Each structure stands twice: as structure tokens, then as C-alpha cells.
Amino acid sequence: MSTKKANAIKQVLSQLIADVFEKSGNKALNYKQVSAKLNIADPTSKNTILSILQEESKSKSGLFKEVETGKFTLRELHTFIVGKVDMTADGSAYIVTEDEFEEDIFVAPRKLRNALHGDTVKVYVYEKSRGRKKEGEVVEIIERFRSDFTGILSISKRFAFLIADDRKMLHDIYIPIEDLNGAKDQDKVVVTITDWPQGSKNPVGRVKHVLGKQGENNTEMNAILADFGFPLAFPTAVEQEADKIEEVISPIEISRRKDFRSVLTFTIDPADAKDFDDAISFRKMPDGNYEVGVHIADVTHYVQPDSALDKEAYERGTSVYLVDRVIPMLPERLSNNLCSLRPNEDKLCFSAVFIIDDQAHVKEQWFGRTIIHSDRRFTYEEAQEIIENKEGQFSEELLILNKLAYILRDRKFKQGAINFESTEVKFKLDENGKPLGVYTKERKDAHKLIEDFMLLANRKVAEFIGKQGKGKNKLPFVYRSHDAPNEESLASFAQFAARFGYKVSTKSEKEIAKSLNALMHDVEGTKEQNVLTTLAIRSMAKAIYTTKKHSHYGLAFDYYTHFTSPIRRYPDVMVHRLLAHYLADGKAVNEEMYEKMCTHASQMEKKAADAERTSVKYKQAEFLQDQIGSVYSGIISGVTEWGMYVEIEENKCEGMVRLRDITDDFYSLDEKNYAIIGQRKKKRYQLGDEVQIKVKTVNLAKRQIDFTLMS
């Protein structure tokens, strides 16, 4: 027998022996007991098992160890680890730990012990054999990631099942007839898991919400919200608390504040906006400088710590912007009424007020509570028209503000900020929410003017607190942090961009920013703009909330926070409270408590972004449902083992060309070069390539679009 074949047999036997120890709970066994459990009786095979156990126990990296004379167990490396379940399509999973250097642990389906995707679990870890991935089994479910699932209800005479929408939920949920809550067969519903009896393949649940009929706009949008864990309505106690808030502003409250009601003030927002959380005031000073006030709705005046309103806002973390609706963080009485800076009404604000010279240098600053009276509500389009035509109401003030914004923006980019201008897809919807058309939103000067003054306020508030006290004396605060890009990801992106003739320097952080800005400028309006911008953003680190003072790499600010949107972001509520506390000479707060709140806010922000993307995908699928057979030009926007994603140039809808549908060759993924390559003819389809596709099928339930590649 060849050495190679003998080694292969040994490897198989080692794996079988390891299975014996696993099934016996890693109890110490001798070679005879192992042989018996494997139903091996012949002496030669028994001796082979003994030699494997002895050899492995003598090697430091061996799979087994001798615990007493002639008795062995599996060698325990890290006996138990805690991590999150990342489920795969075949029912197995990988356990991902918080330690980025720790290898993911593979868990076979039968060893998951009813753990579901996203659950935090404790895993017993063992090694199958040298050179193979770590494997383990779940011994405890520490925390369920979720208990609510959306899906389609299937009802028979005696019981019902929920077939979940989530592709990573591989178990149907059993529902007793008495727990249907009025739901009918084939309804789309939200079901909460109430029990999972030992030994049962399926969990037991009850219907929590009936969403409606599959395919109806309202049903599908609510299903997306429920899927990501966002509530569909405010609890009664929260609504009642909001309704009890006094609308009239008392003279005593006005006397506590700086009065800006006589200063020219206006808002600039989207045409369909209902909550106006920021306003700009402007006046010329006698010395030729300008006073610019950034006035933010004073949410913390109305929402008191630990109230029902506050707890609900914290749990939600953010407002969610789906294609056709906003799910606000605060009830409508606050978000669209009391806190909304509507024109011709006195409103309470928390403000950052700056004295700025004509080169946009801040000469003085003041932070505090104010009362304002907005003179005009501009839409972005109205403000843009005045800026472009240089005439109209408040044109002089708008033009000066626009000039100052240009200087602030230019300075930011010179200091190393990165200018990412990705395409935002919007839909024209009919009264039932059905998409009639798709268009891309263009950002003009009016958008950027507001953005630049909001950035100024956020930066200056963060600097004001961040520069006070060092080491043990520092004042804990909520920052918006953005790390420098991962070197490997950036190098990979630079290599890809070079295919299109764009050079990305990775020599230093400043060089990276400079070359990325040049790239963003050069790709504007090109067919590869979206692909390159998306990939560039993916190569960047993700921005998070934290009490740890970090710079914001993408904006090139040493200090940065979120102060300007407390109606729709809970971290801004935290920032307002902390700023008021420190302005009143309050002592340092509990940093650990605020860091936990920051972590929760970052998680909810990610969930909201995922929900928003999912609603866009649904509307894209719904839009193309009537376009089956239509041919479009598209750009390859992603490549995977099973196909390539193509984004239609005309409407930015994205679908997949599956490899099994490309019949002229056998294609496989070249991950390093972002390409799909034919094995015989070596034909290559690469990220960014232009292709012709035909709309093949649309699956609305799965929000999937399939294309056929045109030859």
C-alpha cells in the first residue's frame, strides 16, 4: 500500500475515533472501547486504532491525549467559546466570536441544538484532525437573537405552520389553532416563538400580528419592518404620554432661553418632509462678520429621561425610512408637531451659534437653549432656484450662506475628507404604493449648504467637549467615529480601480483621501460610477457611535458627533443631554453605561439601513415584474460562486445572472480579480463590465430578480 493511501486511511480513522469521543461526551476510553463503539473486531484494525491514539497523544498538536495509562480523550484546545450563530443554507452554521483573530467554529446541523441564526451560544470546541477547520457543538443558547418571524401561514384542520420569509430560518413554526389570532390561510403574519419542546424538530408559536395578503404594498412594507425587529405601532402608554405634553410655551421657559425670534430664520428640507429638525438663522454683524445659528429641535425638553417616550425612543434607536413611508422614532405629536420647526410658529431649540468671517473662520461660538420663529420653509428645489437665479426671498442671505458653505467644503477636502457621491434611487409611486418609475436623486448646492453647516455644528460641539479634560479628567461624551480603511481592502480596491485607468495611492492617509477624491470626481457620470463608489465605500471602515474619542476619517475631523437630528436619531438625544449637563458644570457621567447605549444605537442604525435597502429591493422587483422579457444594458455590480449581480444602467435595478443559466461554458469565480471565468474558452465577466441582459423572472416574496445574459 502506498504511503499516500495509508495516510488517507489514517485520517479517516482519526475522524471516526474523534466522533466516538464526541458522542460519549469526551469520556476517557481505551483502544478496545473505541474499537467496540466502531464495531471493529479484527486485531489488525484494533492495533491501528491504538497506534493512532498513541501517536496523536505524543504530538503537541495531536488530536488526542492520554489522560491515564492506556486511556485517551480528545485534546481540548479552547474547551468552550461564546459566539454568534451565522447560519448557512444547508442547515450547518459557523460560530463567530468577538475576537477577530479567533477562527470561526463550524457546527454541523445535528449539533446546533435548536440554535437559530444570530443567537449567542456557548460551543464545545474540538478538532477533527490536523489542518482542518475547527468544529464544535452548541451546549447552551445564551441569548436568542430574535423570537418574532414574518412569513406565510399554512393552515390545516388541526394545526398551522408558519413558513418564514427569512431564508436563514430553516424551521417551520408550529402554531396551535387556538393561537391563530384571527389569521386566515395564506395570510402574511408575524409569529412569536413561545416554546421549543425538547426533542421536537419545530418550535411552537402564536400569531402576534396579521399583516394582510401577500403582495399588497402595506403588507410587504410592514413585513420588512417586523423582519428587522422594528415595532409597527407605538405602545398606548407612549402615545398617551405624548398627548399629555403641554403645547403652549410658558413665559418662564422663554425667560430661560436666548431669544432668536427676531432674527431671520428658515428651514430647507425635502418637499415631502414632515419633520423639520434643523433651522438656520442669519444676520450681518456691525464689524462685517456674520452670525450663523444652527438651531436644532429641543427634543430633550419634551422627552425626559426614563419616561415611556424616552425608553421607546432608545429601543428604536432611529427613524426608519422605507421607500414609501417613515417610521418615526418619536410619536407624530412630537416628530411632526411639537418638535418640528414649522414656519410662523415659536419653537424651542438647542442651538450652536457661530460668529464667522467672510473666509468661513469661526471667531466665536455659543451653545445653549433658544427659542426661534422660522420665517420661511424652503424646499430644496425652491432654495436651489434662488441660489441659481440669484433672486427671490432671502436671496442675499442664501447666497452668502452658500458662499461660506463652499469655503467650508473646500477646506474640508483639502484637509483630507473624502467626497463620496453615490447614486440614491427613488421611486415614483401611485396611490397604492405601486412603482410607476425609478429615478436618481441629484444633490445640489441647497442640499450641500445645509449639510456643511450641520457638519460645522456637529464638529464644534464635539470639539467643545472633547478638548476639556485629559486622561482621568476627561468628560465622557458620545462621538461619531470612523476609522481609517483596512489596508488589505483598500489595496484590493486600488487594484480593481486600476482596470478602469484610475490610480489610488495607498502611501499615506492624506494620499489615500486625495486620490479617492480625484477618483470620485473623475467617475462622475460614467457607467462605472456606482460600482466604483460602492466598492470604495465597502473598503472603508463603518462609522459607529462610541464614547472613545476617535477622529472621523471620512470627514477628516479630529472630533465629530451627531447633534443635529434628535427627532430621528437617539444618539443626538444623548448628545443634547450631555452637552446641557456639562454646560451646567455637571460632573463626568458613567462612561460604561453610555458606551453600552452607543453600541445599541450603532446596531439599530445598521438594522434601519438594512430595512431601507430591503424595501428598495422589493420595489425594484415590483417595478420589473411587468418588464419580464425586456432587454436592458447593465453593469456587473457583484460576483459570487453562484452568479453575477447586474445593475441596470437605466433604472439602477439590480438582479442576478445565475451561472447555471450561462450555457456556453462552465464558469467559476475568480474571487481575487472580481471575475467569473469560463473554464474552456477563458471568457471573462468582470466587475464593472457592461453587459446586455433580459429580465427572466421576478420573485416578489423573496425580493429576487433573475436576468438572462444576452449573447
Topology, pairings included?
Blueprint: H1 3-23, H2 31-37, H3 43-58, E1 64-68, E2 71-74, E3 80-87, E4 93-96, E5 105-107, E6 120-127, E7 134-143, E8 148-155, E9 159-164, E10 173-176, E11 187-195, E12 204-213, H4 217-227, H5 236-243, H6 251-255, E13 258-259, E14 265-269, E15 278-284, E16 290-297, H7 299-302, H8 308-316, E17 320-321, E18 326-327, H9 332-338, E19 346-356, E20 362-373, E21 376-379, H10 380-389, H11 395-414, E22 424-429, E23 435-441, H12 445-466, E24 479-481, H13 487-498, H14 509-523, H15 529-539, E25 544-546, H16 570-583, H17 591-624, E26 631-639, E27 643-648, E28 654-658, E29 667-670, E30 675-678, E31 684-686, E32 690-699, E33 704-709
Parallel strand pairs: 13-20, 14-21, 28-33
Antiparallel strand pairs: 1-2, 3-4, 3-6, 4-5, 6-7, 8-9, 8-11, 9-10, 11-12, 14-15, 15-16, 16-19, 17-18, 19-20, 22-23, 24-25, 26-27, 26-32, 27-28, 29-30, 30-31, 32-33
GO molecular function, one term: exoribonuclease II activity
Function: 3'-5' exoribonuclease that releases 5'-nucleoside monophosphates and is involved in maturation of structured RNAs.
EC number: 3.1.13.1
